[in-house]
Design brief:
Blueprint lengths: L1 E4 L2 E4 L4 E7 L8 E7 L6 E7 L4 E3 L7 E6 L4 E6 L8 E11 L2 E8 L3 E6 L1
Parallel strand pairs: 2-11
Antiparallel strand pairs: 1-3, 3-8, 4-5, 4-9, 5-6, 7-8, 9-10, 9-11
Length: 119
């Protein structure tokens, strides 16, 4: 089970750090990722990280967001800096199997945490 936390309301230009803690120790999946969704819009990939230390970022968050993992704590993080109103969304963490730098279908999802950025 994945549980997100750290969401909230912040003004534009501010920062938040989201956490995603996995129950069931050890929780080892090849890929972990952050996604976001706004009502009425498709889910968007924010950032992903794989067990081989590869990472990817959505174009809209590159240079502002950083994904990281603390395997000892079974926790995935998303550091979000220079937040913009368009970053407002429900943020979800998810896990997938994979290999060789490729992630398969994300099939384990958290319940989400709301991030609201005001101008």
């Amino acid at each position: 089970q994945l549980v997100e936390s750290g969401g909230g309301s912040v003004q534009a230009g501010g920062s938040l750090r989201l956490s995603c803690t996995a129950s069931g120790f050890p929780y080892i999946r090849y890929c972990m990722g952050w996604f976001r969704q706004v009502p009425g819009k498709e889910r968007e990939v924010v950032a992903t990280a794989d067990i081989d230390d590869g990472s990817t970022y959505g174009d809209s968050v590159k240079g502002r967001f950083t994904i990281s993992q603390d395997n000892a704590k079974n926790t995935l993080y998303l550091q979000m800096n220079s937040l913009k109103p368009e970053d407002t969304a429900m943020y979800y963490c998810a896990a997938a199997n994979g290999k060789g730098g490729s992630c398969y279908t994300y099939n384990d999802w958290g319940q989400g945490t709301q991030v609201t950025v005001s101008s």
